[in-house]
Amino acid sequence: MFKGLSQVGGFLLGKPAISKYLALSFFSSILFLSACATTGGPSSNSAGAIGSKSIDRTDLSTEFVQLENGGKYHPRTGLLCPPVIGGMTLERDNKYGTNGNNVSCGHSGEGRELTTYLYPAEGFDFRADFQGAAQAITQARPEQKFVHDPDFSQVCTLQGLLLQALVVDEGHVEGDARANFKDDNVKDSNAYTYETAIFTNDTLLTALTLHEVDGQFLKLRYTELIFDTSDEVRRGEICRMLANVTKDRHNDVFNPPKL
To answer: How many CB atoms lie within 10 A of CB 255?
Structure first.
């Protein structure tokens, strides 16, 4: 079992609980990014319960659709691939298996790479899936000698949960499909999951996030080829980027583009 995961992101937290928890931990854990304490091990409260799907996509196309802005959209899963994310351009899209409901898209540029996956969550445990993906990072290329950074990981997890809590509090903005998570198809009582693991070596950073949305797992895998582990400003930027991409892709599932 992968050790050192945060004890917050694996919880299935209802939205009021997120707001209460993060209101207490915001100043100590977010404003001062380097001050977060190591949690010492995985949560004993497993996030295995997966929400039911609110959108029936069984009759939607399994092929990626080219958008006018240069991005792509996958109707069966609801994955939107923007033409550019943070200076990284869309370079590939992939389908796995034969059902057309397991897909990804990849963005690259400026020594960075981001792959976004969306795949069925039914029958899988959130924490087990996350731990398996985290183990794969360290085991696939042991020569890279990745070291898990629990403090950095927990700060990013808290930032993602905080973003969700604050966005929901803003309420639904009529006519602005990407203003926030809240949508007519999403009940406020739905639990919210978000977990992050950050790995570094002497020069390389790789990050993993996992989030459940509408019966699917949304996973990000981000790599930065030149990373200064002492750069606290860059640490904060990476946390915000991961949280914002997760927020945007979550919202896209319920707010498809006009085709």
So the answer is: 15
pTM above 0.90, yes or no: no
Distance separating alpha carbons of residues 124 and 72, to the nearest angstrom: 27
Phi then psi for residue 25, to 5 deg, are -105, 0
The per-residue pLDDT for 36 is 30
Tell me how far the alpha carbon of residue 145 is from its chain's centroid: 24
Query: Which residues of the chain fall short of a pLDDT of 50?
Result: 1-51, 168-189
> In the beta sheet, which residues pair with residue 105?
93, 116
CA separation for the pair 56, 75 (Å, rounded): 11
What gap in Å lies between CA 71 and CA 91, rounded to an integer?
Answer: 10
| Stretch (H or E) spanning 18 | helix 15-26
Q: Positive or negative, the Cα torsion across 29, 34, 35, 39?
A: positive
Q: Give the DSSP letter of residue 31.
A: I
pLDDT value, residue 27: 35
89: which strand partners? 84, 108
As a whole number of angstroms, the distance between CA 37 and CA 149 comes to: 11
Instruction: Tell me the C-alpha distance between 124 and 5, whole Å.
Output: 19
Nearest Cα to 220, choosing from 179, 160, 146, 165?
160
pLDDT of residue 191: 63
